[in-house]
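Exercise 7. Predict the joint structure of the components listed below.
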Amino acid sequence: MSRIDHYINDIIIRGGAEAQEEGSATTEAHHLLLAIAAIEGTAAHRVLTAEDLGRQTIREALDREFEHSLGAVGVSLASFDLPRPSRDPKALPKLGASGRLAIERAIAACKGKKDMRPAHLLLGVLDTEIGTVPRALALSGVDRIALMARARETLTHESW
Amino acid sequence: MPAEDVPVPKDPADALAAVVALRRLADQLEDAAVEQAMRAGWSWPDVAEALGVTRQAVHKKHAKRLIAAGVVLRRRQ
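Solution:
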């Protein structure tokens, strides 16, 4: 396997763990974003941390989006005092529709798989105006377009 | 809150995101409620009937994680 294959595999495994932690049966684009923020040593990670978007900050932004979206229909998360359900550590979530779209967009953003780098994966997750990721970033005051521009910039002078 | 006070999102993006969030909340609530019932000694058929699904469906969805967590389950009848 090439370096990018290993990276994508790591992102899908880490994203799956994030999905499981959240109680989601599928790995979605926002779980991939959490994984990109958690795996160090890439331009994608550096772009995020330069904007103070560490894994924890992104998790908090996603939680705010969840509460905000529930609030739009009059549901308050504070009314639910849910005990933490047990998880099956062996059950790995499958890649969900938004996770799949993010990877397809990452592939579309590069010239070919040989050219693909972690920043392309970040671009794949960010390159949409629809869904949880852009909503969570907007609610936290993050300029998604500027973030994408910085990710693209790294591709011109950073090899990984 | 009274029904007339429940806001209706005007932006379709907000309304669609509310659907996603409600599904996620319902899934979390189901996981927690099924575990609570099974720990309290409920049977699979009773939990299934309460949720309005087949016992095969509820067993398939929840048995592995509850067994992994060491919850003592009543035998399926």
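Discussion. The mean pLDDT of chain A is 93.
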